[in-house]
Structures are given as structure tokens and as C-alpha cells.
Automatic annotation (TrEMBL):
Required for nicotinamide riboside transport across the inner membrane. The lineage of its organism: Bacteria, Pseudomonadati, Pseudomonadota, Gammaproteobacteria, Moraxellales. Its main location: membrane. This is Nicotinamide riboside transporter PnuC. It comes from the Bacteria. Signal peptide: none annotated. Keywords: Cell membrane, Membrane, Transmembrane, Transmembrane helix, Transport.
Length: 245
């Protein structure tokens, strides 16, 4: 199904859209920074990492290899530093994983480009869908055990404080779902599968809940900005996939 507005955003209006989206993102993140943080050195660094993240995700949605994966390496490296300096060693695992996927992606994407130099997405077979579903299920089953083992060494990825969302949904499991789905979406995206953007849409929704419950309003704002980009990326990748076919 073709949507004229999205055709324009991913076509003749692409540059205007990217600039407008980025400026709106910078304004929103800056507002969150000024209103919700103490403006410490770490807060400033976090804000800078968020700006780099904006460049990364919009470049990935428009299939730009060097900018997408290059800035992705910078953003994830920055997140590792933030988590390490704040003492959340376990939370370094996700950005570390994402960093190395971007390293792989920058070489892998370069081998699958169109005449304009943009990465060519590919569709997923039933086998890929099945493998993805199995990976998610295994991840959800094993994560609590792995998390407990890491917690014994002081490196828990998610702390289980028994808090509830809406009074009945475990906040611990919301975090677990967000973690497992995000690394799945990241892997699928680096492997050039268009359906990865469906996963990112789900992930962003879950992370929004996590960030709001944990009081991380900067990242809650960032998640909403990312969500808009995910819908654009979904349309752009599927459109490009169909054109290449």
C-alpha cells in the first residue's frame, strides 16, 4: 500500500523531513535536559550522546551506511561510558552488543548497496520469522537466570524491585521484554531485514513505559522521537525492498 505523504517524506521531501525531524528532536531533548536534570557533566555528556543517536537512527531509516552505522558506533560507545560512569555495569551489555553490530554493519551494508550507495533491504522468509520468534522466546526464558547470575557478581542488567506498572504488570518483566526485543530488532536491522522496524516500533513503546516509570524523561522524549522515525523507516525500507525486487 502506498501512502502519498510517506512517499514524499521518503522521496522528494527527504532532506527537509530529516532537518525538521532532527531540529524537533534537539529542541525536545534540550527541553527535557534543562527541566529534568541537574546539568552535571554526565548530564551534558548524556545529552550529546542523545544528539548523536538522533543522527544515527534517521540515517539508518534512510539506509545510509556510513552515517547510520558510523554514528551508531559513536552513540553506543557513549552509552557504554554513561552506564559505566554511573555504576550501572550490567546496563553496558546492550550498548556493547549494539556497538559491535554497527561495526559489522558498516562492512556488511557496503556489500549490498544500490547505485546511489544506499543499503538494499531484504524481505524475511518464513524460516527467518520462525528463528526470530524462537530467539525471542529463548531470550525471555533464559534472561532471568542469566540476570540472577550476573547479579551475584554485582552486574545485574535489570534490578527486580517488585514494582508494578498499572498495579499488576511486573516492571522487571517490562525491562526484560524491552531488552530482549531491542537486541533482536538491532540484529535484524543490521542483517537488512525490513521487518526489523516493526520490532523497533514495539520496542520503543515498551521503552517509553520503562523510561517513564524510572523517571528518565530525556530518554522518554527520545523514545517518542525515535518512534516517529521508526514508522518512516518502516515505510522507506519496504518501499526500497519492493523497488529493488
Amino acid at each position: 500500500m502506498r501512502i502519498q505523504l510517506l512517499d514524499n517524506i521518503t522521496g522528494k521531501w527527504a532532506l527537509q523531513w530529516i532537518i525538521t525531524w532532527f531540529i524537533c528532536g534537539v529542541i525536545a531533548l534540550s527541553a527535557g535536559f534543562w527541566l529534568t536534570t541537574d546539568h552535571t557533566t554526565l548530564d551534558w555528556f548524556y545529552l550529546a550522546v542523545s544528539f548523536i543517536g538522533l543522527i544515527c537512527v534517521v540515517s539508518l531509516s534512510f539506509r545510509k551506511n556510513v552515517m547510520g552505522n558510523g554514528f551508531g558506533m559513536g552513540a553506543t560507545a557513549g552509552e557504554v561510558v554513561v552506564q559505566a560512569t554511573s555504576g550501572a555495569v550490567g546496563l553496558m551489555l546492550a550498548p556493547l552488543f549494539n556497538f559491535f553490530t554497527h561495526v559489522y554493519g558498516i562492512f556488511y551494508w557496503s556489500k549490498h548497496t544500490d547505485p546511489d550507495g544506499d543499503m538494499i533491504p531484504k524481505s524475511a522468509s518464513k524460516a527467518v520469522w520462525l528463528i526470530t520468534a524462537v530467539f525471542i522466546v529463548i531470550g525471555l526464558v533464559l534472561f532471568p537466570t542469566v540476570n540472577d547470575l550476573l547479579a551475584n557478581y554485582g552486574y545485574a542488567v535489570v534490578e527486580d524491585d517488585s514494582s508494578l506498572f498499572l498495579g499488576f504488570i511486573s516492571f522487571f518483566w517490562i525491562n526484560v521484554i524491552a531488552f530482549v526485543l531491542s537486541i533482536t530488532a538491532q540484529a535484524a536491522m543490521i542483517l537488512r531485514y525490513s521487518f526489523s522496524w516493526w520490532l523497533w516500533i514495539i520496542v520503543n513503546f515498551v521503552w517509553l513505559i520503562v523510561n517513564l516509570m524510572s523517571g528518565n524523561y530525556i530518554f522518554a522524549i527520545q523514545t517518542m522521537i525515535y518512534q516517529v522515525n521508526s514508522f518512516v523507516g518502516l515505510y522507506e525500507w519496504y518501499r526500497s525492498e519492493q523497488q529493488s525486487a
